[in-house]
Amino acid sequence: MKNISKNTSKEIINGSLWLLIQTIGNKATSFVSQIVLAKILMPETFGKMAIILTITNITSFVQQIGLNDILIKRGKSFDLWKNLTQTIALIISILSIVILMIAAKIGSIIYNDYSLLILIPLYSISIPFNALAIIPESKLRIDLKFKAISIIKISETLMLQIFTIIGAYLGLEVYSFILPYIIVGVIKWLMFNYASKNELFFKLKFKYWKYIINDSIYVFLHSFASRITFQADYAILGLFASQNQVGVYYMAYTLSVQVVGFVANNLPQVLFPSLVKLKKNKSDKLYNKYIENSFIITTIIGTPFAMLQFTCAEPIIHFFFDEKWFETIKYIQILSIGMVFRTMSSNWVVPLKSEGNFKKMSKITNISSIIYIIIILILSKKYSTLGTSIGVTLYYFLITPLLLFTSLKNTSDNIIKSVLRIYFPCLIGIIIYLSIYFVLKNTTDNQILLLTINCFLPSISYSLIIFTLRKKLSIS
Predict the structure, then answer these.
(1) Cβ-proximal residues to 389 (8 Å cutoff; 6+ apart), any chain
(2) Burial 407-432 (b: 16+ CB within 10 A, else e)
(3) Among candidate residues 82, 342, 360, the one with its CA nearest the CA of residue 200
(4) 328-364 tens-digit pLDDT
(5) Which ranges of the sequence are coiled-coil (predicted)?
C-alpha cells in the first residue's frame, strides 16, 4: 500500500510539473501574442474570430465524443481498441465537416456575415488531423509520458502564435487565425504519432464498435454540453451586440481565463490516469484522499491567481494595451471572480470518469449547460457585454456547490466538512485581495504602485494564513 501511495504521488507530482512547464510556456507565449495582435488588429477581427470559434467548437463533434477518456479508462487494452477508435474518429470528423458546412450557412444568415461561408469550411480542414491526434495522445497519457505531451503542446502553441502574428503582419486579418490551425494541426498529428510510436496509416475496423459507442454516447453528451457552456456566451452576445463588443468581450474572457489553463486544466489530466490505476489496485482510501486533496490544492493555488487577475487588470491593460482595449478592464475583473469558483470545481469530473460513471457525468453537465444558457441569455439581452460578464460569474458561483457535492458524494465520509474545507481558501483569498485592492484604489492613482502592492501584499498575507491553518485543511 505504501509503495502504491509513493509511486502514485510521484507520478502525479512529475506529471503536474511537466504540465506546469507546458502551461507557463503556453500562457507566456499566448500573452505576448495577444499584446502584439491587439496592436495590429482591430476588435472587429477578434469578434469575427470569436463567432467562428463558437460555431466550429460547438459543431466539431469529434472533439466531444470522448475517445481519449474511454481509451485511458481501458488502459492496457489500448492496442486492442486503437484501430477501431481511429476509424470512429475519422468517420465522425467527416460528419463534423458536413455539419460545419450547414452551420456556416446558418451562421452567415444569423450574423449577417457571408464571409463565414469561406472561413468556416477552410477551418474544417484541420478537424480530421486534430481528431486522429487524440488516439496517440491518449497512449502517451496511459503511459504517463507527460514530458512528451508537454513538449508537443508547447510547440503547438508556439507555432500557432508565430504563424498568426506573421499572418496579421502581412494583412491577412481573420485568415491569420484560420490558416495556422490547419498547418499546426497536421504537424501536431505527426508529432503525437512519432512520440507514441503509432503508425500513421491504419486499417479501418468496425468490429466491437458497440462497446466503444455505448460509453462514448454519454461522454459525447457531456463534452458537447461543455462546449456549449464554454462558447454560448460569445454566440448569445453576438445576437445583441456589435462585433466590436464581441471582440472586446473575447479579449477580456481570454485574459481572465488564464488561471483556468494555468491551474485547473493541469491536475485533472494527471489525476485521471493515476486514479484509474488506484481503482484497479483497489486502493480506496488513497483514492478518496487524492480526490479531496486535489480540490483543496487546486483552490489554494487557483484563488490567488484569479484574484491577481482582478487586482492587476487595470495597470496591466494600461501598460501593455492600446486605449481601444481599456473597456476590457471591468469585464476582466468581473470574470476573474467567476474563475475563482470555476477553478474550485475544475476536478469534478475526474472521480466520475475514473469510476466509469459517464451517464451521471453527462446528466449533470447537460443540466448545467441549460442553466448557463438561460442566465447568459437573460443578462446579455438586458445589459449587453456587462450582462454577459456578470452572467458567467453568477453561473460559476451557483453551480460550483452542486458539482462539488456530486463529485464527493461517494468518496467523502463527511461531505459538508469536505466542501467547507474546499471553500475556506477561496473565501479567505477573496476577502484579502478585495480588501487591499479597494483600500489602495481610494488611496493612490499611481499605476506602478498599485500593481506592485496588489501583487505582493495580498499574496503574502494569503500565503501566511493558509500556511498557519494548513492542518485544519487536512492536506497530507
Answers:
(1) 249, 252, 330, 331, 334, 335
(2) bbeebbeebeebbebbbbbbebbbeb
(3) 82
(4) 999 999 999 999 999 888 888 877 777 777 788 889 9
(5) none
Report how far residue 67's alpha carbon sits from residue 382's, in angstroms, rounded to the nearest whole number.
Answer: 40
The per-residue pLDDT for 2 is 47
Residue with grid cell 459543431, as numbered in its chain = 59
> Taking the alpha carbons of 96, 368, 181, 328 in that order, is the dihedral positive or negative?
positive
At 193, the pLDDT band (50, 70, 90 cuts) reads very high
The SS3 assignment for 64 reads coil
pTM of the model: 0.72
Contacts 24+ apart (CB under 8 A), 179-187: 179/122, 181/123, 181/126, 182/122, 182/123, 182/125, 182/126, 183/159, 184/126, 184/156, 184/159, 184/160, 185/125, 185/126, 185/129, 185/130, 185/133, 186/126, 186/129, 187/155, 187/156, 187/159
Q: What is the CA radius of gyration of the chain?
A: 22
Is residue 176 predicted with pLDDT exceeding 60? yes
